[in-house]
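Q: Structure tokens for this one, please.
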Amino acid sequence: MRNVINFNAKWAFSKEASGVPTEVSNKWNFVNLPHSWNNIDGQDGDNDYYRGTCYYAKELDKFDLPTAAKYYLELCGANSSADVYVNGKKLAHHDGGYSTWRVDITEALEDKNLIVVAVDNSANDYVYPQMADFTFYGGLYRNVNIIAVAESHFDLENYGGPGIKVTPEVSGANASVTVEAPVVNEKEGQTLVYIIEDKEGSVVASCDGEVAEGKAQLELTNVTLWHGKKNPYLYTAKVQLVENGEVIDEVSTRFGCRTFKIDPENGFILNGEEYPLRGVSRHQDRWGLGNALLPEHHKEDIDLICEMGATTIRLAHYQHDQYFYDLCDERGLVIWAEIPYISKHMPGGRENTISQMKELVTQNYNHPSIVVWGLSNEISMAGSDEDLLDNHKVLNDLVHEMDATRLTTIACVSMCDINDPYVQIPDVVSYNHYFGWYGGDTSMNGPWFDNFHKTFPNIPIGCSEYGCEALNWHTSNPTQGDYTEEYQAYYHEELIKQLYTRKYMWATHVWNMFDFGADARNEGGENGQNHKGLVTFDRKYKKDSFYAYKAWLSDDPFVHICGKRYVDRVEEVTKVTVYSNQPEVELFANQKSLGKQVSPEHFFYFEVPNVGETVLVAKAGECTDESRLRKVEVFNEDYRLKEKGAILNWFDITEPEGYFSLNDTMGSIMRSEGGRAILTGLMSHMMAGMSDGKAAGFEMNDGVMKMMEGFTLIRMANLMGTAGVTVTKEQLLALNAQLNQIPKN
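A: Here is the predicted structure, written as tokens:
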């Protein structure tokens, strides 16, 4: 029988080694897997984390392995390219840092062995991703196993797949289930036994089959459907390879029986019922760990997502851990799975998009939670060309050939013209929009989707990303771009009301469920992260916006007072927001009722007298929540954004009343004749520092310029470094002095 031996313990690791080692050196560090070498420097900003080749080495005594005819080394995540050596002999190379792959090490094994994996996350022009707003953590950051099997065994070399493929077809109350399990090195007289068990482990269907066929069809009567969170029912399919009455190998997988379609008017339909997909995107990394997660970390993530009430997750921007897909199956989350074909199309990367897609589909085919395969994300950022379009057509055809049961999709960057032929390639489309954060205002989101729906009524449209950043900054007057928890809450209130009331939208995904590592970012006062998460990077704090979604999506009764971290307030009367999924909320200040409110939108707004110390208690049905306020005479500067390592901070900027400054938005300055003249000069300086008129991969077109209108000038200046444009403090102060001469009227 097959044996899977975990191979995670005590690897020697070196970042400094100059080549493949011939022995384990005591000068190396010893680490247990999963491991990443960028767990610290990939999260601290300045885009200076180590990208290169590192070595992992481990000794193996063959006598410690079970007796078997064949041995495979299984690597579940090595980012982003890797080579495997056994006793100095190179056995395999793999490009793609997020999928499982295996190496037959049988012939290279001796009594004593040194296994070396050289892992490389350095920049190149042929392995995706190379440009994206997240850290490309290097390392062996998922499990490594040795699989021992008989000479005849189920296939272990089919793009890292599980060796079993299950395709259920529901018809009325029954289902026909096709099970495929090809055998390698088959022998005469061997047979296959196919078994399907229900959730309780009872056999509900079985049959024998020929090894040469490697395929059987079994019938399920009175089938129980996998119905999302309402009933995530899973069957188990097993196939046994039998020789002389003995089972010599076995593969198994869980699967679900369900039907779905995506309707351009009615959204997502699951088993014939409307099932709105409203949820989040997820990056897998953690503070201090990078991508090197343990099962308990994945479990905590899905617990938080389920607590919020989400029905869907976009697993961005790469293949995630098999354990997390398993959790999605169990919890009934509907999944968008994708490859890291992102941001920058590379003509030399086509084969890598194909291989990563083959691995994604092959390894995840059996998961009932997955309904769409994502071809790319924001890949038309610098415009689309014939090579990009052809790459997408190849991928789209490949996915349909490999999987006739699911649909394809793309995540388009906001500036991508809806008439671009690229938008017409997949089965369904979603857009990444940040109106109200990077540009425009929140009110633009819903009408944009209405226009797309009107223009292309037969193309299902969704929102694959939307969000804004928030840290522990606070204000009673939130404004776009201030990084306060209060503006993020306001933003998501507005987006919920617009997106969730448009039935035709096939799916909406908040960007992002969790803050995540983005080492190129230096903004918001905490460098090295994207802070658009509804939950902090360490998963310790749920921001107020988390509860806005919980109020709309969760059935578990709750009430939440916003602004718990914003205690000191200067105003005489302050606004307090309460979220609840209960129909009525009453708020008490120092035990005095401030009244009851009813809100069909689940958002309740109270005016609270701010005198001395105030204890707030919100009641909604049987639920209560408590918070505190304190009246102060001077605003607490601990609540105001201070950029770490910024060229210039807000408090360095003079703001004469009635005149412009660097703290004003580009859009408002452009509406002034004098301000427009100054900005024209600034943009000329920016363009001079860019090659081919592009900044960080963005083509400086009308769409990008429109997006930039929402940035304050100081914020834009602090972001220019990522575009390769240098602006000094002296230049900014001089620019501010010019703006101070221009009246706002």
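A few notes: The chain has five domains: 3-149, 165-255, 260-556, 568-631, 647-739. The longest helix spans residues 386-402.
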